[in-house]
Design brief:
Elements lengths: L2 E3 L11 H11 L4 E5 L6 H12 L5 E6 L9 H9 L9 H9 L4 E6 L5 H14 L3 E7 L9 E4 L5 H15 L7 H9 L4 H9 L6 H6 L4 H5 L12 H5 L1
Parallel strand pairs: 1-3, 2-5, 2-6, 3-4, 4-5
Helix pairs in contact: 1-2, 3-4, 6-7, 6-8
């Protein structure tokens, strides 16, 4: 029986049907799929949807959030915690990880690897060498550089999908919101970056679409206020740059 330890999104994924099909196909031919892209491009959200789509192909599907970590030596412990495995005293943590999944078909998602990329590369390679039935998906702004790694760059949203995303997120804060032609211009100026579009859409609570468009020259100040519970918003300065 499949055991899933994957997070569920609070909002539906809009667009990305082609991207999901492509990454699903890649998982059929690689054991290490690295989803890359700039901050805010939607790497995590796409990996979430991908993992849920394919989870029934695995005995275990485990999501490992690495953003809170600053110490690369804690990656193994973070994986164990995500798996719900209690480490045995005095044992090598990575050995415990490998022992726990070696005989099970496992999907392991390592989210937000960029600040620990060297250590993630070592961990991923060791797991793949020791666990032949394990597949790893990583999200990162920089590829791991592990032999056999398949990298896939998240593209910007199409204008149509970007406008839909803006509209749906705007309606969350202003249910009567109706898009006009200026929404497409905003999405194009934000290069189809999902996080930037969502943050801009949230401003319709206090600004008109025309006012949002006019203030995009100071995009960081306009978009930097957002959800208090999303640490990825810390990357918004890099996203806007």
């Amino acid at each position: 029986m499949s055991r899933s330890r994957l997070p569920y999104a609070l909002t539906p994924l809009l667009g990305r049907a082609r991207e999901l099909d492509e990454t699903t196909q890649l998982l059929g031919v690689t054991r290490l799929l690295t989803i890359t892209g700039a901050g805010g491009s939607g790497k995590t959200r796409l990996a979430q949807e991908l993992a849920h789509r394919v989870k029934d192909d695995y005995e275990d599907a485990v999501w490992v959030e690495l953003a809170p970590l600053s110490d690369p030596d804690l990656i193994g412990q973070q994986i164990l915690d995500a798996m719900g495995v209690r480490e045995l005293a005095a044992e090598d943590v990575l050995r415990v990880v490998i022992h726990s999944i070696r005989d099970r078909r496992t999907l392991l998602v390592l989210d937000n690897c960029e600040h620990l990329v060297d250590a993630c590369a070592v961990v991923a390679e060791e797991i793949l060498r020791s666990c032949p039935d394990t597949t790893i998906v990583t999200t990162t702004r920089e590829a791991l550089g592990v032999r056999g790694e398949q990298t896939w760059l998240v593209p910007p949203l199409s204008v149509e999908d970007a406008v839909q995303l803006f509209t749906e997120r705007a309606k969350l804060v202003s249910p009567s919101f109706a898009p006009n032609e200026m929404v497409a211009q905003i999405c194009q100026r934000l290069d189809g970056i999902p996080l930037a579009i969502e943050l801009a859409a949230a401003r319709v609570k206090v600004l008109t679409v025309d006012e949002i468009a006019a203030r995009l020259d100071d995009a960081f100040r306009l978009l930097s206020s957002g959800s208090r519970t999303l640490p990825r918003h810390r990357t918004i300065r890099e996203t806007i740059d």
